[in-house]
């Protein structure tokens, strides 16, 4: 069911969104050669506790999952598209890697969600272009949001940017409603879909999250039940903001 948030709830989401923004950018500053994904996870848990929030991902069981997610962060390196588990078989980050940190917080009872992809040291030109394109896809998607627009228009905007740069939206993956819980309706596609989808209304809160792959849209799910990788081993980038639909546009909450 699609929900509309009140002004008071949106005010809480703004507060939580600022806390989440600051956390992500703090963690981004810790991404460097030799750092393990497990270290980022332990650091995140400490910071989240200190700001009086709760990690939304930790022990959360999404629909269809066989077990709760075992971490506060998703840390996805290079060919991992999304949902990389940082504290099971930790990865040591190397110079030239691209590292996505994705997390959500529950703050004052309201949920926000955001992600960024960070270069470790010097990355190659195609990786730079992939990050640029994925950021642009997020920005263009947010620009089409307003009361009366549709989820389909968001997906079409993301796919248009992907095609411009000759990258590929990860198949079947996309954003979602958020606010009262970690995942709510509606599904937000990262690709053009048949029909217009759901009509957006003022007060809806959405997590918009383009994930663009270098070589193919196809993805594989690993045996841990969560980690999604590109089918061909090419790299993937992911940027996400939580936004609220307004009468004439969108307001970014995780900034």
Give a structural overview.
By secondary structure, the protein is α+β, with helices and mostly antiparallel strands. The chain has a single domain, classed as Creatinase/methionine aminopeptidase superfamily (Creatine Amidinohydrolase). The protein is built from four helices and 15 strands. The protein has helices at 7-28, 37-50, 125-144, 151-165, and strands at residues 54-55, 73-77, 80-82, 98-107, 110-119, 168-169, 174-177, 184-189, 205-208, 211-213, 219-221, 228-230, 236-238, 241-245, 250-252. The strands form four sheets. The protein has a five-stranded antiparallel β-sheet with strand order 8-7-9-14-15, covered by helices on one side. Strands 1, 2, 4 and 5 form a four-stranded antiparallel β-sheet that branches. A hairpin with a 6-residue loop joins β11 (219-221) and β12 (228-230). α3 packs antiparallel against α4. The longest helix is centred in the first third of the chain and has 22 residues, at 7-28. The mean pLDDT is 97.
- Physical arrangement of strands within the biggest beta sheet: 8-7-9-14-15
- Approximate strand percentage: 25-35%
Number of helices: 4
- Uncertain regions: pLDDT < 50 for 5+ in a row? none
Largest sheet features: 5 strands, antiparallel
Structural class: alpha+beta
State the fourth-level CATH superfamily: Creatinase/methionine aminopeptidase superfamily
Shape: globular
Number of β-strand runs: 15
Distance between the termini: 27 Å
Mean pLDDT: 97
Summarize the helices and strands and which ones pair or pack.
Layout: H1 7-28, H2 37-50, E1 54-55, E2 73-77, E3 80-82, E4 98-107, E5 110-119, H3 125-144, H4 151-165, E6 168-169, E7 174-177, E8 184-189, E9 205-208, E10 211-213, E11 219-221, E12 228-230, E13 236-238, E14 241-245, E15 250-252
Antiparallel strand pairs: 1-4, 2-4, 3-12, 4-5, 6-10, 7-8, 7-9, 9-14, 10-13, 11-12, 14-15
Helix pairs in contact: 3-4
